[in-house]
Write the structure tokens for this entry.
Amino acid sequence: MVHSIKALDKKAVLFAFVLGLATILGALGSQYLGGLVPCELCLEQRIPYYWGLPLLAAILILWNRLPLIAWFVAMFLAIALFSWGTYLGVYHAGVEWGFWPGPTACTGTGVGVSFNDLNNINATRVIPCDQVQFRFLGISLAGYNALISLAIVGLLLIAAGDQWRRKRTVQA
């Protein structure tokens, strides 16, 4: 069965890719153009996009050439990556709201500071993970990342479900 862009599965993957691309470009733009300095958790939340978006691009480019099992394995990996991204966003938002402690790297070095370290104080500036730099409608960027990552997971699950349903229909 030849897929077209009208198929729900491919539309969902394409929309997930565009949503993810807009999100990571927004994060990079807020850093390099907007002056928001990311903390350690902000940087870690970008990793699922750095790995997941090329994977989604490969799925889209190789759509009709991938064996079905390879397609489902790639989709599983993408779903796992963006599920991890959802977890990271929820974790970071929870740190910002004070629900749980963040990593010590976001709140200090964890060791005493000597007078010699004061010469390099600007080189070792720590961006706190528990202080929100920007909120929109009461939600921080970490919160939006959690919501967007969850939406991407949902879209990918819809795509996998549609692909599974259509393959079962063809076999029947």
Observations:
- Residues 1-5, 108-112 have pLDDT under 50 and may be disordered.
